[in-house]
Amino acid sequence: MKDKTKKIALGAAIAGAVGYVAGILTAPKSGKETRKDIEKTTTKAWSETEKTLKSAHSELNDLLEKAKKEAGPLKDKAKKGLDEAVVAAVAAQKKAREVLSLAHEGATDDKELDKVVKDVTKAIDDLKTYLTKNQKPSK
């Protein structure tokens, strides 16, 4: 449920930004005012996406800790599957850290940021699915 909320929030932020930019471009303002409005909207959209990525990065970190704790008692096939999910999650987490650093320096683009958000979200979903599927029943 939390993942859907994040995806909806991210989609709404992007859609809102696109709508706002379209409105700005058709508004009767000077070029200087329009550019300033576009810059402000772009900065806000980047900030929201960066916030989403930071949150996802943190959630992924928590799931990795949980996966490491639960990996011990699993059987070979289940352990192998979890290990593969953990490796993919660690790679996504590392890439997220790199892109967040680049974003602070202004040295990354929208496509790269969007790809990392998708990769981290997929890693979170995969780990959650795997951990839920292989949980021991509560006594």
Architecture overview:
The protein is mostly helical. The chain has one domain. Helices cover 86% and strands 0% of the residues. It is built from four helices and no strands. The protein is elongated.
Number of domains: 1
Taking all residues together, what is the mean pLDDT? 75
Number of strands: 0
Give me the strand/helix succession.
HHHH
Task: Name the overall outline.
Answer: elongated
As residue ranges, the low-confidence spans are none
First CA to last CA: what distance? Answer: 26 Å
Task: Give the structural class.
Answer: mainly alpha
Main sheet: strands, sense, barrel = none
- Tell me the strand percentage band: under 5%
How big is the Rg?
19 Å
Helix tally equals 4
Helical coverage, percent range: over 70%
Secondary-structure map:
Layout: H1 2-26, H2 31-71, H3 76-105, H4 110-133
Helix pairs in contact: 1-2, 2-3, 2-4, 3-4
